[in-house]
């Protein structure tokens, strides 16, 4: 049975545990691909080009915008980020479901263009928890932490525009909830061609029942 791949957007303020959640989700689900974004920010730690992101200059990014290569793009924390249309289309047309880690502006733009996108927002239990996690991971200086916290306060206001909101109190519980959402979305009737699913079986009524 063929089904077009589903786009699953996951947004969370940075430090919210999102990358761990996405990594663990994909480890246990070979049907889930990850869309690698283009960014103009510098690589952090041991990040590699073509793995976490495609790292590009501002000029290269602007060229991609001019070529209409992005299905959505946004400026986040002072850098540019974009989702390549080709990357997403290639996978969904092959029937792969795609996880996208994108910010609130980009997510809303994507939802406008692809209304069937499933949007999931992961909230930290509190801003204080988020601040502790940001400091704990030791990747940002004080100024960057301040910017990320301020952005987090703004971003959480958008959570109500999403299809699902999860509070990440416990990583295992959050991952379990995400798996449940993904499973349920894969079973949504409108995504499945019932005739295709049952092949030659003819027992389905030919007409809709009159009492629905
Ligand atoms: P980071 O620099 O910490 O990896 O990501 C910063 C923010 O950029 C995160 O909120 C992440 O979701 C967002 N982001 C990453 N890739 C994209 C993208 O392709 N488009 C948009 N709009 N946001 C992205």
Q: How would the blueprint of this fold be written?
A:
Layout: E1 7-11, H1 18-27, E2 32-34, E3 37-39, E4 53-55, H2 58-66, E5 70-76, E6 79-84, H3 85-93, E7 97-101, H4 104-113, E8 118-123, H5 127-137, H6 142-155, E9 164-167, H7 171-186, H8 194-198
Parallel strand pairs: 1-7, 1-8, 2-7, 3-4, 8-9
Antiparallel strand pairs: 3-6, 5-6
Helix pairs in contact: 1-7, 5-6
Question: What does this 3D model show about the protein?
Answer:
The protein is α/β, with parallel strands linked by helices and 212 residues long. The protein has one domain (2-187): P-loop containing nucleotide triphosphate hydrolases (Rossmann fold, 3-Layer(aba) Sandwich). Helix content is 40%, strand content 20%. It is built from eight helices and nine strands. The strands form two sheets. A five-stranded parallel beta sheet has the order 2-7-1-8-9, sandwiched between helices. The chain has a four-stranded mixed beta sheet with strand order 4-3-6-5. α1 crosses α7 (171-186) and α5 runs antiparallel to α6 (142-155). It is globular, with a radius of gyration of 19 Å. It starts with 6 loop residues before the first strand and ends in a 14-residue tail after the last helix. The protein binds guanosine-5'-monophosphate (5GP). Guanosine-5'-monophosphate is lined by residues 14, 37, 41, 72, 74, 76-77, 81-83, 101-103, 105-106. Residues 14, 37, 41, 72, 74, 76-77, 81-83, 101-103, 105-106 line the site of guanosine-5'-monophosphate (5GP).
């Amino acid at each position: 049975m063929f089904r077009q791949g589903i786009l699953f957007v996951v947004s969370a303020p940075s430090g919210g545990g999102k990358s761990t959640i996405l990594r663990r989700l994909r480890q246990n689900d070979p049907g889930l691909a990850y869309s690698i974004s283009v960014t103009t920010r510098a690589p952090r730690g041991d990040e590699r080009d073509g793995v976490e992101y495609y790292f590009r200059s501002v000029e290269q990014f602007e060229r991609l915008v001019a070529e209409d290569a992005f299905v959505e793009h946004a400026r986040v924390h002072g850098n540019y980020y974009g989702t390549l249309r080709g990357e997403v289309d290639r996978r969904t047309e092959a029937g792969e479901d795609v996880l996208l880690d994108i910010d609130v502006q980009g997510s809303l733009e994507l939802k406008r263009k692809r209304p069937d996108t499933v949007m999931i927002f992961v909230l930290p239990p509190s801003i204080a928890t988020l601040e502790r996690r940001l400091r704990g991971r030791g990747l940002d200086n004080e100024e960057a932490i301040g910017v990320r916290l301020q952005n987090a306060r703004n971003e959480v206001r958008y959570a109500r525009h999403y299809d699902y909101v999860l509070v990440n109190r416990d990583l295992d519980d959050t991952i379990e909830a995400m798996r449940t959402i993904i499973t349920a979305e894969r079973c949504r009737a409108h995504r499945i061609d019932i005739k295709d699913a049952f092949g030659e079986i003819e027992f389905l009524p030919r007409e809709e029942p009159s009492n629905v």
